[in-house]
Structures are given as structure tokens and as C-alpha cells.
Design brief:
With 125 residues, this protein is mainly β. It has one helix and eight strands. The strands form three sheets. The chain has a three-stranded antiparallel β-sheet with strand order 3-5-4, with no helix packed on it. A three-stranded antiparallel β-sheet has the order 6-7-8, with no helix packed on it.
């Protein structure tokens, strides 16, 4: 029969060999980082401003804007919803494979690159 280990031998929660961790912090060793994590760091970040889009709660208005027609161009952090023709905005640069959510029509979308080279959203379900 195996005897249970003494509780005093285990380190306390939140304590590592370097000492106690501050509350809310997360330490990740550089060796433990996946290649995807370094790709995420290279994405351009955007500061979004409220565009006055009033079809969603106030908290989420900065993530959507109305499509202005044929003369409107999309930034690298924007994609148009094929269901309701609303522009979905992100705080980071969008890339193929990213998932976005259209709150006005409640559609889940996946960002894909078209043959022309532009980004487009396809309905997932």
C-alpha cells in the first residue's frame, strides 16, 4: 500500500521556485511558447472608435459600422458580413482562418482569402 505524501511537502498554490506570483499574473517561459503565439504578436493592433452603429448594445458599437456602398474600402481589420452587409471590425489585423461574430444577424463567420487576394467572411453556421 502506498502512503499518501505529506501535505507540507507540496508547494503552496501560486508559489514557484522563483517565489510567489503576484495576483492575476501568468508566467510563461519563452521555450513553452508555441509558434502560433509569436505569429499573434506580429499582428497590427488598431484602436477602434465608436461609429454610432446603433443596432447592437453600446458596449459593442465600436466593433461594427454600416457599409457605405461601392466606394467604401475595408481596412485590414475589417470584413463585411455576407448576411446583413454590416462591416465587422477587430482590434487586430484579420487573417484567413480567424473567426468573427456578427451580432446584428447572429452569424458566426470565418475569414478566408479570395482569389483576388482580399479578405472575405464565409458563414460557418
Amino acid at each position: 500500500m502506498v502512503e499518501p505524501a505529506d501535505r507540507d511537502e507540496r508547494p503552496a498554490v501560486g508559489v514557484c521556485s522563483a517565489g510567489p506570483l503576484p495576483v492575476g499574473s501568468l508566467q510563461v517561459a519563452k521555450d513553452d511558447m508555441a509558434p502560433e503565439a509569436t505569429a499573434e504578436e506580429s499582428r497590427q493592433r488598431y484602436i477602434l472608435e465608436d461609429t454610432g452603429f446603433d443596432e447592437v448594445p453600446k458596449k459593442y458599437r465600436k466593433f461594427y459600422r454600416k457599409w457605405k456602398g461601392a466606394g467604401d474600402t475595408l481596412a485590414p481589420n475589417e470584413v463585411i458580413c455576407p448576411v446583413c452587409k454590416v462591416v465587422i471590425r477587430s482590434t487586430r489585423e484579420l487573417r484567413p482562418g480567424d473567426r468573427v461574430y456578427c451580432m446584428p444577424c447572429m452569424s458566426r463567420l470565418v475569414v478566408v482569402r479570395t482569389e483576388a487576394g482580399s479578405l472575405e467572411a464565409r458563414v460557418e453556421y
